[in-house]
Amino acid sequence: MDGMSTPLTYQETITVPIRRLPGQGDLPLPTYQSQHAAGMDLHAGVPSEASVVIEPGAIVLVPCGFAMAVPVGYEAQIRPRSGLAAKFGVSMPNTPGTIDADYRGEVKVPLINLGKEAFEVTRGMRIAQMVIKPVPHTQWQEVQELPDTGRGEGGFGHTGQ
């Protein structure tokens, strides 16, 4: 053995039913852009003849052209694309957004333009990323005292700069 460890290659795969909406057959389904990407890119389902312009400071809900059935026990997290944020100041006002297992409507992404110039969203443009994650349900156990920690009740900024 040469002392180098073998990289972990196992990835759990789940099946998620997905339905293209009428008139959206030309759009790619959510797609991983590399072998080990965590998120799948979502594409704008705006009409090709009517792109959407997001003025500085404005928020626009952009359709993605599909609906899906996230399995019970999972959620779909919708996250901004770092490239849009870094290059144009375009992000999401609620990040990550959550799509619950019982939602069956069209997936839409709220985009906000934090930049100084108007931003044009065109058909098929990659606008966000989606990650499917397991979500355990929480059961509360009411107690009189919580266990002590080194941090205690220290709030925002308490652990350092």
What would your notes on this structure say?
By secondary structure, the chain is mainly beta. It has a domain at 38-134: Deoxyuridine 5'-Triphosphate Nucleotidohydrolase, Chain A (Distorted Sandwich). The chain contains one helix and eleven strands; from the N terminus they run ββββββαβββββ. A five-stranded antiparallel beta sheet has the order 2-3-11-6-8. A four-stranded antiparallel beta sheet has the order 1-5-9-7. Strand 2 (31-32) and strand 3 form a beta hairpin. The longest helix is centred in the middle third of the chain and has 7 residues, at 82-88. It starts with 17 loop residues before the first strand and ends in a 27-residue tail after the last strand.
User: What overall geometry do the principal axes of the alpha carbons give?
Assistant: globular
CATH topology of the domain at 38-134: Deoxyuridine 5'-Triphosphate Nucleotidohydrolase, Chain A
Question: Whole-Å distance between the termini?
Answer: 43 Å
- Cα gyration radius (Å): 20 Å
**Helix/sheet category:** mainly beta
**CATH-defined architecture of the domain at 38-134:** Distorted Sandwich
Largest sheet: 5 strands, antiparallel
CATH homology-level superfamily of the domain at 38-134: Deoxyuridine triphosphatase (dUTPase)
Q: Which spans have pLDDT < 50 for at least 5 consecutive residues?
A: none
CATH class descriptor name of the domain at 38-134: Mainly Beta
Overall pLDDT: 91
Q: Summarize the amount of helix as a percent range.
A: under 10%
Strand residues, percent: 25-35%
The oligomeric status of these chains comes to single chain
- Please tally the helical runs, counting DSSP H or I stretches of 4 or more residues: 1
**Element-level helix/strand string:** EEEEEEHEEEEE
Q: What's the total count of β strands?
A: 11
Main-sheet strand order equals: 2-3-11-6-8
